[in-house]
Amino acid sequence: MPEISPADATDPCAREPIRTPGAIQPHGALMLLGPPDAGGDRDVLSASINLATLLGLDARPTRLGALPDGVRLAGLLDGLDTPGGPPFTDLLSLPAGRFQLDARSTPQGLLLEFEPAGDVGPDAGSFYRHLGELIDAMGLLDHEDDLCRRVATETRRLTGFARVLIYRFAPDWHGRVVAEDGDGRLPSYLGLRFPASDIPAQARELYRRHRLRLIPDADYAPVPLDPPLLADGSPIDLGPAGLRSVAPVHVEYMRNMGTAASMSVSLLVDGALWGLISCHHPEPKTVAPPLRALCDFLGQLLALQIGARTRGEHAARRLALKRVENELLARVARAADFPSGLAASPEAWLGLVNAAGAAVVVEGAILTAGRTPPIDRLRDLAGWLKRGQDTPLWHTDALARHWPEAADLGESASGLLAIAISQLHASWILWFRPELPHSVDWGGDPRKPAAAPGERLSPRKSFDLWREQVRGQSEPWHSAELDAAADFRHAIVSFVLRQAEERAALTDQLQRSNKELESFSYSVSHDLRAPFRHIVGYAELLRERHADGLDDKSRHYLDNIIDSALSAGRLVDDLLNFSRLGRASLDMTRVDMNKLVAEVKQSLAPDTAGRAIDWRIAPLPDAWGDAAMLRQALANLIDNAVKYTRDASPAVIEIGGEALAHELRFWVRDNGTGFDMAYVGKLFGVFQRLHRAEDYAGTGIGLALTRRIIDRHGGRIDASGALGQGACFRFALPVPSLSPSPEPANG
């Protein structure tokens, strides 16, 4: 059945020189001709040693013109020297009888094969009548396997082989017998699978390039070429030759199958090798060239039918999935963003590729539908895809084979179809299928080694039924589903780009509005400073001048005026600082963060006097930024820690930092009042408070000011805490590639 047959894909058999065996089979003769001379005659560069005997010649010719009717033949072959062109076929009358000539051009010269024309048999004459019946029947057969079964029956009727199989290749090149017709003398292989190593890649390529192959007698004695090498020392490529001698291991493989003769017809669908019509016989058997041509025609007819049905099925599936895609895109377009649009339409999202689960991962956020792995595993999977896959669409029906960490995810994610929606971030739309446990019937154990160490190379000897239980594998993704996912990706990427453009336009508007607001805020804040100072000053003068004449209530009124004016003044100062941050340029330099912390701690000494505070300050790495702004940010965070630990005894304030390859991280942690994480989103907003103003002094701008400082430096800031258990504020600053690499302060 196959050309090469080791059980192990790594077997040396896969590297056998099957194109250059240096010999042919004895049921024909071969010669290789050089280019034509001025008169059209050609030199014989090499020939099989049986050429003269088989053709009935007195001696092996050295020139094409020496053959009977060689001059006419030279004219027929004129212009056939373009490699890759169609072969030329003719019937020749030679001293030993009538021969079919097959001539084809190769890069090494013209390859001529001579084979006795033979008898086409009694049934060949009725072939065209049967062919008409077969074509009519093909239109009535609904299933591909039924079509293959009918062709197997017709091929066996036509040729008389004891067993005819239709052998289909899977995407991984394992093969399965999908149809069979036999007379019972050879065992049935119907439904059995054979490993990809039975037909290595180089043999499959020969099947793809040359559709028909005959071995009339497995016990043949190879006929050598003379000479075996060309003048430049290169071996003669017999890949295109139907008479090419096969590898000894294949002959032994045939004997192990109980097969003395075989013939194969390649089934090519859209230029790709779909499968084979494989014929076997327990005794030697010759099939005449015209009859083989009929079988080749039958194979092409089957391949055309399979191709048409495959394309029709694909189109029908694609049309159905297109309707789902259009519905899903319409819903996504109405949503605020595409992840929420997907999550709001789970049925369409899953139905787009007939998946059992789906997830979308965008900038660390994950939304799911159906049955999926846990969120943390999805995040790991997205990272693995980003690191290891450079294609916008990737799929598998056995994820654990590629990502071993998925070994325990069979119930939700044996199959994965992933489309990338960002070239920069680990952002993916993922579809999942659960494992589909099933059994596979093999023609012999596919794991059995071809040869023990030290033994000669040999094929496997057993073709007995061997059943494998398959786990960790899902239903394969259909090509129509892959096309649907690819089209959906293009639509989503376009949607994301359109949203990005809209956001960019809005950002421009917001930036202009912010600049106007900052200018307004700066002007108002600047103009309000003097009036509030005047209020405080005149109120204090009034209290001093009439100190003896004021009653307690009047003094209380004046004190409230002064306190309110001072508070309003501080608010104006903070607003002025906040607005200045958006206008001021950064004076970037190396910043000693240890020095800044010491300065801030010293400035807070009046507020911490008499308090029990456990300062835990670790050595901090140097930063790269605007020293004044970073001092302000640290001051706000440390002042908050001091303020909100006033009821703790002792108060613990921890300040630390670390230098990483791409960023610097700092934190201020305390054991104070803390906050509810449900309101963490409010922390860094202007005038946002999580505690009552009368409980803790402040304007509500400090954290917003800190965030703006960190944002201006291209960093990020976040916080965590719990009521009554303290809070931790963390910020990170980038390490610019053009700046000196920060080093820890302690060296």
Automatic annotation (TrEMBL):
Residues 1-22 are annotated as: Disordered. The keyword Ion transport does not apply. GO terms for molecular function: ATP binding; phosphorelay response regulator activity; phosphorelay sensor kinase activity; photoreceptor activity; protein kinase activator activity. It catalyses: ATP + protein L-histidine = ADP + protein N-phospho-L-histidine. Its main location: membrane. It comes from the Bacteria. It holds the Pfam family GAF. This is histidine kinase.
